[in-house]
Amino acid sequence: MLWDLHCHLSGIDGDTPDLRMANLIRFADRMGIERVVVFMGYPFATDPTAEELRVQNDQVLQALSHWHDRAFGFAYVSPKHVDASLAEIDRCIRNGPLVGIKLWVAGHCSDTAVDAIVQRCAELQGVIFQHTWNKANGNLPGESTAEDMAVLAARHPATPLICGHTGGDWELGIRAIRAHLNVSIDLGGSDPTAGIVEMAVRELGAERIIFGSDAPGRSFASQLAKVNSADISSESRSLILGGNLKRLLLPILRAKGIA
Amino acid sequence: MIDTNVYLSHWPFRRLPLDETDALVAKLRAAGIAQAWAGSFDGLLHKDVTAVNARLADECARHADLLLPFGAINLALPDWQGDVRRCRESHGMHGIRLHPNYHGYRLDDPRFGELLTLAGQHRLIVQVVVRMEDDRTQHPLVRVPGVDLTNLANVLAAQPQVQVQLLNSGRDVTPTLLRELAELPNVWLDFAMTEGVGGVAQLAGDFHMDRVLLGTYAPFFPVESSLLKLDESELGHTLRDRFTRKNAEQLTRLAGKKPGQ
């Protein structure tokens, strides 16, 4: 089983969401990736308005419309627009086919403004994905670090959370969240530096590590190489490449009646 | 296959899973690499580059059927010209590897022009490493931006006798620069840091299919990264063979020609 937690519609050819999705699947097929999770539309909007959130989620809904056997989707939400985000969660997750949320760089996840969004998604058993990066050359104004993620995790200790990009600088990110057992890491969207998976398995255990690529901006290949090359057990590799994501998705899939 | 971008010794900021030569060699062989062009991580920060290159040559000699040493040259050091000469005459190297950003000079520096001339005279391939890692993940006290490639095309156009390969240039070569470099007959690229789905095919289309070379950047990156990129791009057998072998052989032939040949 090879499932990819982290894909986008921006950065790939196609005039429509459908064409972009078809192209993404074409490359996923070449790499043996059976299912992808897609979130955010195009063009990328780092601090979207409430209307832009809706438009971007509509693009994802359209992209998935012919690919429910191959893809899941998360709703793009923002702590800058809590009411609109709650409405999008209801529209796209409670009443629609999406199965989680994506929080990007509009506001720090350590801010309590995000709490209502996290709580609402958790009530629906949706998956919660928060982008994090610890950049040596400076973060965007609202961009969360892995330390921000740890603060959020401490406020919601019973809620499963995903630390996107492992904080980018993964040697810092893994340390920042390792004490918070409700936090898993996403491996995608950083250079394929050797050793990331070995350190993560050592410090977190394989059960808290999820393969994601951040394609199409990143290559499926470079990101998959992080896991394929790692000196870990076949059981750990299997969990990372799909087992853990499936486990996180199962509650909401069952709630939606999806086999 | 010929891998044009591997390193021996230790990355200064982290131990890497395959940073012992024997382990790296075993991995390369298992992956089907028949020849690997090896530089040394020690060439980044060590001042006694002469000793760095001697160790590199000795280490490669232990696996002479696989590893070809590419010596470090630091143009900020006194008598770097002596290191160039020793790379060729004492160690029989086919190429040298430069890290301008770690050694503090730009590519429009007159010393770089002098180096190109000297390398041409010694029939050495010149590899310029554009970056070693993502700016965002560098040690906060050792932040080294990628090599500024402004004016590179002009500099290389003036030195057509020397073959120059850019390593790890993926995110730094703009489409405009790619078009300029594609017009020059003596510029080659690897794809270790080329990103995006289908990135290798895209690079070959934007640049030149006869001058794209396999580089894995092992052991900093897993060998699998560049090899899987070949699978991800829709390449036929002919193109794949060019990128993984024939183009590197052609680069070696061109660099080894005597002036006027």
Task: Give me some keywords for this one.
heterodimer, A: 259 residues, alpha/beta, TIM Barrel, 8-stranded parallel beta sheet, 8 strands, globular, B: 261 residues, 10 helices, 39% helix
Structural commentary:
The complex is a heterodimer of chains A (259) and B (261). Chain A has a single domain, classed as Metal-dependent hydrolases (TIM Barrel, Alpha-Beta Barrel). Chain A is built from nine helices and eight strands. The longest helix of chain A is centred in the C-terminal third of the chain and has 22 residues. The radius of gyration of chain A is 17 Å and the shape is globular. In chain A, α3 links the parallel β3 and β4. In chain A, 42% of the residues lie in helices and 14% in strands. The mean pLDDT of chain A is 97. Chain B is α/β, with parallel strands linked by helices and 261 residues long. Chain B has ten helices and eight strands. In chain B, strands 1-2-3-4-5-6-7-8 form an eight-stranded parallel β-sheet, sandwiched between helices. In chain B, α7 links the parallel β6 and β7. Chain B is globular, with a radius of gyration of 17 Å. The two termini of chain B are 27 Å apart. The model of chain B has no long low-confidence stretch (mean pLDDT 96). Chains A and B meet through α1 and α8 of A and α9 of B.
| Residues in helices of chain A, as a percent range | 40-55%
Q: How do the strands of the widest beta sheet of chain A line up side by side?
A: 1-2-3-4-5-6-7-8
**CATH-assigned homologous superfamily of chain A:** Metal-dependent hydrolases
CATH superfamily of chain B: Metal-dependent hydrolases
Could you describe the largest sheet of chain B, including whether it forms a barrel?
8 strands, parallel
Radius of gyration of chain B: 17 Å
- Contiguous low-pLDDT stretches of chain A (5 residues minimum) are none
CATH top level class name of chain B: Alpha Beta
> What would CATH call the architecture of chain B?
Alpha-Beta Barrel
> What kind of oligomer do you see?
heterodimer
**CATH fold field value of chain B:** TIM Barrel
Largest sheet of chain A: 8 strands, parallel
Return the string of H and E elements of chain A. Answer: EHEHEHEHEHEHEHEHH
pLDDT under 50 segments of chain B (min length 5)? none
Average pLDDT figure of chain B: 96
Order of helices and strands of chain B: EHEHEHEHHEHEHEHEHH
Number of domains of chain B: 1
